[in-house]
Amino acid sequence: MKSNDLDIKCRVCLSNNLEIFKIHHFCFSPKDNNWKSYFCFECGAVSEFNSKNEENIYATSEYRDKKNHFNDNSEDKNILPPIDPWSTVSFKRWKHIYDILDNKTTITKKKEFKMLDYGGYNGFLPYAFNQKNKVNSYVADFDKKGLRMAEFLGSKVINLSINSVEEKNFDLITLVHVLEHLDYPKNQLEKLKENLSNEGLIYAEVPNLYGFPLGDPAHNIAFTKFSLSKMFLDLGFDVISCGYTSTPKDSIKFGYFYSSIFEAIYIVAAPTDSRKNRNKLPSPNIPKSIVKFKYDLNLSYVKIMLKFISPNIFKLFFQYFKIFILFSFYGLFELLCLKIFKKSFGGKTIISKLIKKRKNRN
For 116-131, what is each residue's pLDDT tens digit? Predict the structure, then answer.
């Protein structure tokens, strides 16, 4: 089964065994008609291509600013905070990343290690890690505003608009929600492999095709555990661990309700010179037809809506409803008491009058 477009190939495994598809969904808005989505029957990933070749501009913060976190009702949308407010949520990702590395590797046992946060924007992740271990940290990104913050927080910075990563011997390279933004991440991973130390690790995290809806115009790829693992294995990495993770629950307060146990996929990998004793790939579970794939994808949307989004919204509603009840009923009760007893700073209450009247009778 071949792609109708001769120059189109899978962004993950570079196969041309693709088929175009379109998802129409009432709740999850798809990308506009300038985008075409292709399912790969070799690795199970989805690759998306913009027919107008429009690109997100990462160097000027346009990508993050247009998210309008906390600025939807701003009187002047040109006045923005010095850093994307969403960073307060993404900062908390450090905990599950650190815990995974702590459980699956020995890097956190080192008193000091060298780290590159590729696509790290503001350097919040190495800043958090540096409070647990002594970290010689670097942040590589296109965003000048983010790099200024990363430098302020103590990281050395690499402006990818001007320079490539030349520094070597990193013990850890992190790519947190970066690979899905790239055209062909295999190329970049192959280069970053050369920047690792002999015992270096890569930690990567991406949205899950079956745990996060398609539709984000900044995403070029939707991965599965199989496609992500296969890409690393094909590049000569040993997959130490691969599993599911999620965005911190605080995201619900930002109107982001997708947080779930299957929302994102993580992988921990290390380069190896031998293919012996390597981890096996996860089960591919690749549908045999585009009809079956669309059915599976829509079924995953049902699970997202019923098992995760609806409960997340209900929890938020119940949290604010309790606060509403507390202040509304207490406010009404206090108003009622003030009206009945007519308490004032300069006068007497009804109760004091009744006590005085009783004393006079005695």
Answer: 999 999 999 999 999 9
Q: CA-CA distance, 353 to 360, in Å (whole number)?
A: 11
SS3 of residue 71 by DSSP: coil
pLDDT tens readout for residues 172-215: 999 999 999 999 999 999 999 999 999 999 999 999 999 999 98
85-118 residues labelled b (16+ CB within 10 A) or e (exposed) = ebbbbbbbbbebbbebbeebbebbeeeebbbbbb
Cα 327 from Cα 329, distance rounded (Å) = 6
Q: Is the pLDDT of residue 347 over 70?
A: no
Looking up tokens 């696509």, which residue turns up? 119
DSSP H helices in the chain? 62-65, 87-90, 93-104, 124-129, 144-152, 185-193, 225-234, 290-303, 310-341, 350-361
| Alpha-carbon span 55 to 142, nearest angstrom | 13
Residues with Cβ within 8 Å of 194's Cβ and at least 6 positions away in sequence, in order, are: 168
pLDDT confidence of residue 275: 42
Q: What is the DSSP string of 27-51?
A: SSPPP-TTEEEEEETTT--EEEEET
DSSP for 293-312 reads HHHHHHHHHHHIIIIIIHHH
Of 119, 62, 113, the closest CA to residue 93 belongs to 119
Beta bridge pairs of residue 243: 266
Q: Are 179 and 159 in contact (CB under 8 A)?
A: no
pLDDT at 339: 77
Question: Domains in the chain, start-ordered, CATH in brackets?
Answer: 62-285 (3.40.50.150)
Beta bridge partners of 136: 114
The side-by-side arrangement of strands in the sheet containing 170-176 is 156-159, 134-141, 112-118, 170-176, 196-207, 264-271, 237-245
Share of the chain above pLDDT 70, in %: 84
User: Does residue 137 register a pLDDT over 90?
Assistant: yes
Number of other CB atoms surrounding residue 319 within 10 Å: 12
Query: Per-residue DSSP letters for 249-301?
Result: GGGGGGT-----TTSEEEEEEEE-S--TTPPPPPP----SSHHHHHHHHHHHH
Residue 354: how many CB atoms within 10 A of its CB? 10
